[in-house]
Batch of 4 targets.
Target 1
Amino acid sequence: MTGLPLAFVPAGRKVTVSEVRAGPGMFRRLSSMGLHPSSLVEVVCADRGSLIVAVAGCRYALSRGMAMKVMVQEEGA
Amino acid sequence: MSKKITIALAGNPNVGKSTLFTAITGKRQHTGNWPGVTVEKKSGSVRHHDTDIEVVDLPGTYSLTAYSQDEVIARDFIIDGKPDVVVQVVDATSLERNLYLTTQLSELGVPLVIALNMADMAEQRGDVIDLQKMSKYLEIPVVRTVGSKGEGIGGLLDAVVRESGTSPHHEHSIGYGDRVEPVIADLIEALRQDPALTSRYPPRWLAVRLLEGDEDAEKKIKVSRARDAIYSILSGIDAGEYEALMADRRYEVIAAVLPQVCTTCVGEMTASDLIDRVVTSRYLGIPIFLVLMWGAFELTFTVASPFMAMIEAVQEYLAGVAAGIQPGWLATLIGDGLIGGVGSVLIFLPNIFILLFLLAILEDSGYLARAAFVMDRLMYSIGLPGRSFIPMIVGFGCNVPAIMATRTIEDTSDRLITILINPFISCGARLPVFVLFAGLFFPENPGTVIFGLYVLGIVVAIASAKLFRATILPGKPAPFLMEMPPYRLPTAMTSVRHMWDRGSMYIRKAGGIILIGALVIWALAASPAGVEYGSAASYAGMIGQAVQPLFAPLGFNWEMTVSLIFGFVAKEIVIASLGTLYGVGEDAGALEGALLADPALGSITALAFMVFVLLYLPCIATMAVIRKETGSWKWTAFSIVFGTAVAYLAAFIIARGGALLFGGVIP
């Protein structure tokens, strides 16, 4: 179960993280912010490359490059 | 008998630690609505019943693995500072993410108390959090607090004092499951070979850190006698896989606890998100930002003018009184030195305060973080992360806190570039020069000219960043990842307080360093004895004339030259010394007249002068903070030389270009 990169998810959609393909440092950082496998993510804004996502009640801005490394699955898929 | 304990306020960024610190100690601490306001630990004290409590406010951190300078400060204090109790300040509106740090803190073996802060906001949203259950499941006392209203402080301190007595403390570590636990046990076994190390740090915590590939823990092991045994264990496993397993496990624990203690702790689409859709949208984002900034500068100009007229009237009255003082030298000391010098600066305080007030609103509302997001792509294209944009905006108020704010930038060369370009961002001290000259020489649209100067500062900063990336500090900026705090409606009180915190510095400066500067310039302008005040034959005149040839290509006369030389102390002194040298104290408002009447000054020279003041060497305080934050004299000297060279070049282009275009002759 790999799914698609978070960067391709349109605004307003809720998805589940299936895999974080980042180096150890970035993986830890994302984990400590709540972005880890099986967490629920909602894309809030996605029309300028970088995106704002809602994770565990918080909003994060992350670059498109990083969003490409977070693989997600659409809910119910 | 009274007891003395030290507690640390730790927690994620932007959860209200500094607000809680203020509520506990009564010591005012700068706060704002963006992650990374506190970059240094601050301490204060409070007496609770018979216990003296030293409270240390730490910069925010998401985990105990530190990435940036401010997180290192927090982590080091929690681990090596050995506080008696760690209070984790938790944002009640985002429990899941906050509890991740809890799982790490609880492994440390330090008594822990959770302050469930911003509880009122969670309740307003309809969340019901069961404190007792939360305490029970986490095995940590949980106290409800609302830092902004001072609620729950007594209860929190009660819990802190109680916990401080519970040592030795057990570690309420979570279990990491069948695959990870045996490795942790092996590591602990190996660590026991080095009793000196395990007496300082809890062995289980060190083992967990090592498994997660924490660099700091590895450094500790490198010099330990347990090194070989540990290396042989670690080399036998796939560290990345273990790390993922452990992070999963932490969230599993949180996910198990959370539904038990909290109902409806799930985020829905909020008003914040709706605002974000608009202010960060592809087409509107940058225009909205520009309109906000332009509006801020227009307001600074228009709202300030009645206040300026009032200050001017007071000065005019005082100048009239001063003129009658005997003996004559005292009259010129007070008239030219004090009123002409310091008074010329004081008149611009309304501008500075209004600008600071508007910046405080931007900070407190949470918009600043959005501005960083909107600018990310532009910043990335010049080789900086979007995060670097926040220090640039803070620099509009003052470059000193702006350069300190760069501590949240993780990458060293990203951070160094952000520091080096910050002096180009026009601070409040430069505003008086612009207001005076733009008002005089561009009377139709001074606001637009000033806005243009600010934009020029940003453009030069950006161009310099690009130049540094291409030459001395190559590399790619760290990818953008930043928390967007929820919008909060700033109250007039808090914004006024922020304005005052930063603005009072300008008043103190006017009564201190600027007063001294004005008096020194007055003394130089009035001596040697018998010389006509402020004439070319005075010492000030001699110094100015000696250096002036250097500035002749820019069209600056010797009075302007002297003011620039002294302006490196503080940039307001440029105005103070012009006021002193033109000897305008007797008649407030006369500096304008004297400047306009000076044949050496036309609008082109005025523009060149403003641009020079904008870009040339940073003031003493900024130099000192650059030295401190870069830890290098070399970079400090570089900043000074580079800034002045750029200023000279820019002013030269304007002066010569203007002369060519308009046929004006520059004497």
Target 2
Amino acid sequence: MDKIIVEVCAGTHCTMMGAMNIMDAVASLSEIRKDMEPCCEVEVRPIKCMDLCKNGSQGPFVTVNGALVERAESDAVMAAIMQHCSGHRKAGE
Amino acid sequence: MRGIFTPITKIRRQVFTEVARYAYERDLTQSDFNYFYESSYRIIPGEVAQYRDSVFKERAIIRERLRLAMGLPMRPTDTHLSLTQGMAESATPNKHLDKPLVNVIPFACEACPTDTIKVSDNCRKCLAHPCTAVCPVKAVSIGKHAAVIDQDTCIKCGRCVQACPYHAIERFGRPCAEACGADAIFSDALGRAEIDQDKCVACGLCIVSCPFAAIADKSEIFQLITAIRTGRTVYAIIAPSFVGQFGPLATPGKIISGLKMLGMARVVEVGWGADFGSMHEADEFLAQRKLS
């Protein structure tokens, strides 16, 4: 089974801009997706500040298998997860 | 929308961030608040509207929210008043909030219809059409494609809503008015929500219910930060609900430590005062019993 790792920055800026809500939303939506596409497992984890907000970029910052999503919202993160899901890609072909 | 992170939460936090940042960064000896002229451009950047029909309107709303977050009243829409009017005077820890605490930003209000009963696309124009039979005022008739409710006659009894086998008749109202337990929301001349301040108890339910972020409350965040910066002893008296406020990762210990790091001399849960109140009441009760 593929594992998709979603890392959510839990620094002050990102938390204030809704990082925790993204974590909750992605975790709960991933539960539903697991039934639809059992090929992938999504693991959501908070990580320490990525320091990206210091250079003027806007959070929340989320990486999906290492690919960065800036100004993340839960739907953008879910879209990135679906791109990384092999079963979903095949179904779309 | 409580518990869901929406653009409203984001805007609210961005406004507080602007106010807090200036409270921390400003030169305390100066009373220049020009910083706030730039704030609405930082929160709403660019030329394309993100939330409403125009960026100008978006920024105008942000400016009123900034004033409220500074603890100031909104400005009248029909006369000129500087954004920073009153800021210098209110920038002291001695300033306390003036009523009204909860404010509808009139031009942010979408003037949603008040209590309405409406036939939706689900209507199949069925043979039985019980909606017409149950109406006590004959406001429901069968039109060309669906049942039609004459809004002038309808008394909003809701019988047709109950009778429809397809759930095609819906009742809806203004989220703000529906949330208000004090029946304090009425309409102004333009059909926009307005708060009867004599009835309002400032509970804030309309603020969290409005899907257009048209209702905002005043804050004392600026005055609080100024108090800390000028060396006053500040105690945080927090509601017991703080436990659930910041999600499962923030333990009560972390929140209390965080508040102390912000500069609070001590953090006390508001229930502690209630405990003392109860103890005092109990003593008084016992003393009276002994006397009689």
Target 3
Amino acid sequence: MSNTSKIVSRGFWSENPVLVLLLGLCPTLAVTTSAYNGLGMGVATMAVLLGSNICISLIRNVIPKKVRIPCFIVVIATFVTLVDMLLEAFVNNLHASLGLFIPLIVVNCIILGRAEAWASRNTLGKSILDAVGMGLGFTITLFLLGSVREILGNGTLTLFQFQETLVQLRFIAKSTDPILVMILPPGAFIALGFFIAGMNAIQAKLKKKAG
Amino acid sequence: MTDKDEAQDVANKDDTPPPATGDTKSAPEPQQDSAARLVLTLTIVTMVAGAALAGAHALTKGPIKAAKARKKLASIKKVLPKCTNNPVKDAIKVAGPQGKTEVYRCRKKQPDGSNPVVAVAIEQSSKGNKHKTYSGLIRVVVGIDTKSGKIRAFKNKKGKQEVAVVIVKHSETPGLGSKATDYDFRKVFAGQDLKPKDKTSKGKVWMTTKDSPLGFVDAISGATITSRAVTEIVKKTLIVFNKNKTAILTTVKSGTKKAAKTEAAPIQEMQP
């Protein structure tokens, strides 16, 4: 039991994909201009991660080592395309708001990273747990990063957005200019830097306490 | 030792799993992989993937097409008044600055029984624009009143003033260029035609105030590029309408029998 929770919780803290492993930075930096975008990317990534981890864990003993990477890539690309097509056909609303991010997931190194480092070496159950943990860790981190950038850079916090429907909290009055740089590309690096620094500071403090 | 064996040794060394953080008990034993096995495995994997995708494609083709049509109709409906016909089915293709362009026609039954085109929706994109966008393509749907030839202004369902200029797709910077989708920016196009006028009915030109003292579009601060691009796209929709006005008003679409019948009268009237 403790082993189960350990596998899942790793993704949140000790092996957080964005803040510790520094994987998948490309989508992280590019799409976290708003909280909702971060959330959408996180959820879509988690879905693909779950699918690819399950598949790869199932075929791990059949695939020769030398061609494993091409095989993983094929599995991941297939999954991304499947998710893309199914979303577009049956949950068109969601696809309209996530559409941009879905093809990007193929090049997200978290997916290949987890396939290579975990799913290809572990049982189905453990691979599913790993995907859930990593996926949730990624989603939460992206959501927080997007929230901070959006609040500072646009004065708002978008929780849901589709066409006319918009659930948005406003933190800075419309007449005041927000810190625009935070939603521009440099702001992504600045925010991520502070996030990693903060995480390291907390980690160091925890170590001191324990030691 | 042959070259092949050597290569395999190196490969196997590279492949030894690093001291993993997790469970490595179930890691597969290093296998003796013949070339044939490698080829076979990859072939099977890609074939299964291909089959899965082909199946999913066949399954989702219909729903995707229907969803796309629904979406298109929704954005067109946004810029048109209530119609007695289906504007998507009654669309005609005309020549425009971007080649063949679809014009969606909205008809309204008149007291005399005729069913003329009262408004059209035209979509243009930033493709071929003189003023480039900041990033990616911008697509705009504009609703034009056929009688006056002006961009429609109306009250929406909530009773708020709206203008029939809808940016259906863009990837401009959020918070900067994305402000072009706000009514505050778009409202400048309300009631304009190819000879724009300002509030005091003074003649203006289709430009931003930054590019010409005669421009009437107040550019968004920090997003002049986006403002210029959108202004040019909206102008293009008006060009499409003005160049093809007669075709838009008179062409009877084959296949829409009902529309053709009710339409026959006004066409004859218009012919000299």
Target 4
Amino acid sequence: MPQPADFGFGEEQAMLKDSARRFMEDKQPLLALRKVIAGTEDPYFGKERPGSYDREAWKEMVALGWSALAVPEAAGGVGMNLVSAVAVAEEVGRAAMPTPLTSTLQTIFVLREAATAAAENWLQQISEGKSGTLALYGKDGSHELDQSDVTAVDGRLNGTSFYVQDLQKVDFLVVAAREGDTVKLYALELSAEGVQLDFDRIVDLTRDQGRVTFNNVAAECIAEDGAATLQAALPATLTLVAADMAGASEWLLQATAEYAQIRTQFDRPIGFFQAVKHPVVNMMILADQTRSLVYAAACAYDTAPATAHRAAHLAKSSASDTAEFCANRATQLHGGIGFTWEHDVQIYHKRLIHSQHLYGDGVWQREQASKYL
Amino acid sequence: MAASETVEHKEFREYCRAWLQENRPAATVIPLPQAAYEVTHEDHKHYLVDWQAKCYEAGLIATDVDKIYGGHGHSGLQQIASSEVRRAKVPYFINWIGLGMAAPTLLAHGTESQKQTYLPPIFSAQEIWCQGFSEPGAGSDLVSLQTSAVKEGDNWIVNGSKVWTSLGQLAKWMLLLARTDKNDKYNGITYFVAPMDIPGVTVRPIHKMTGESGFNEVFLEDVVIPDHMRIDEVGAGWKVAMSTLTSERGAAAGVGAIASSESPYAAIETLIALAKEKQRNGRPIWDDPVWRDRLVKLYERIDAMSQNYRRAGVKELNGGAMRIPLQGKLNGSEIGQDLHQVALGMLGMEASLYVGDPNAIDDGRWALGYMNSYTGTISGGSSEIQRNILGERVLGMPKTK
């Protein structure tokens, strides 16, 4: 089947994206974030920081159907595709909004690929307003999908999951656990007996991350072949975070272009000078490449699965390199002010440092993509 | 853009595909140069003129142009024809300046009589066009051009010189910019159609670093141009030129100009195939993660360029009508250059072997292509000028000049 020229981005998606954008602008998430961290001795750590987020806004997002956007209608969801989810994720990134939305959307695609009755039950719970995240990685942070430090024996989990995103914000987990030579996926509520949460001290102020230790915890198996399920959902996992990064990179581009018009040195706005103007254009070139690859990857997952992995690895590769360049130039070209705590450039810069390495940087993604070339 | 093709589009695509399959010309005895702007050989000229004429008759060129101007009178089909021509890996169209610049300029600014006179032979390649913009003292700073045109009765007398004139030695017509008012920099330039085969016009080839020719110096000495060959108003030349350059930069839909036969996808796929085949340190180059990373990065950028064009057609996702199209020339030329640089690195010491050496990989095409890639990054507004335009027009930064 030929892919749609418009990525499957029709009127419905345009309206969704537009309302997501206006919603994020309206909520002013960075002002809310600054209120929480203002006056604290250590803004980097604490149970309410940096994992703090606007809970009322999240409830509204749930009510708008965004958290269940990609849940099939049979499980009570909206039944939209990855292109639609990506459109919203891009707006989350543009606003640098602290929210469990992206993690929940990623969890949805893993549950969809699991395609078991148990997984469908968890999808149903997302439709009812629950949020979820993925607990897949071991201590050394390898990006392979079979490197979990958690083991499962007779439906009981032991060990620790590392680098779990949005751990302070979500209701349930999908956990990769080793059972003999295989990896299976389990799902459980964070409040389950024997679950211990520890929070990481991370660079990014807009996210939170942590470790989950399982002490003989009872959990429900949702996929017997966990590695295959995760691999099938990987294009969605990668493309959603790449979309978030595309939105954040575009924000940095616009902020820097605007600053270059108002900041005056040597009697001229600094954007007059080609040493400033040209790198800002280079930011745009990269941001556009990423954005195009993100929509192409989402459309490939929706309509041409045979090409989805290659497209998603290329999109995340591009997103990581674009993020690094845009964050670097934005901070440099803003001069001293961009380096300060008060300026929002630092918030985006740190969100992008986090995203750049999440699930593998550009080099890793290209190594994966090469298997499909 | 519709999510799926209409029946008309689908039928036309199938027609183009079948026609190109059936009419693919036999290869030339001496291989064609890599792009249309390097053509100098008479045999190549005849071969390419015949090929373009055939494609025009088949409806692959001027597909969407009105019938009174020699077009085929369709709407929305040129893009399909052009993409099928690219896909078929057939020879390029020699009259690329005629198709890519002269035709869009005439359609936008020409009189009825000019359009009806000049357009049909552009499409059929019976009359080749070249462009007379740059001068020895006016490159990136084009507006400082000095070639003068002085009105005498119904004629203009032109004196000066032009440089980097691709196809100048084959052309029947030149798109000429000349100064008609020395005291008004921007409004003192007028746009003409200049005949190349009249007294006073001297064409002298310039040899490039590749050893090929293809572009020229053109000297204009008391050249007489009738006033009816002026395009648009006296003094409107700069405005008209900007619209011509916009066509060159890929922003116009165009009438089917194809200046090089190989798509960037085909080039990177060829390079990856070479990496899988060529041995280095006892294993294929592709097995070396450093080279693999470089090649996949190039593939990613080429894919992004193609997905950019796709996204440009989605109004809600393109960031404004001109944002992506204005990046086309910059992206295409810089990615092409980087691709050839990587290719030479991959060849190692074999990169030293040039066209004609019996041991040269692909007859030296990678070294030749690397050198020719500077045509892309310098001509038609250098990459630096492209970045000024993008910074100013798309991002709103202050004008450098």
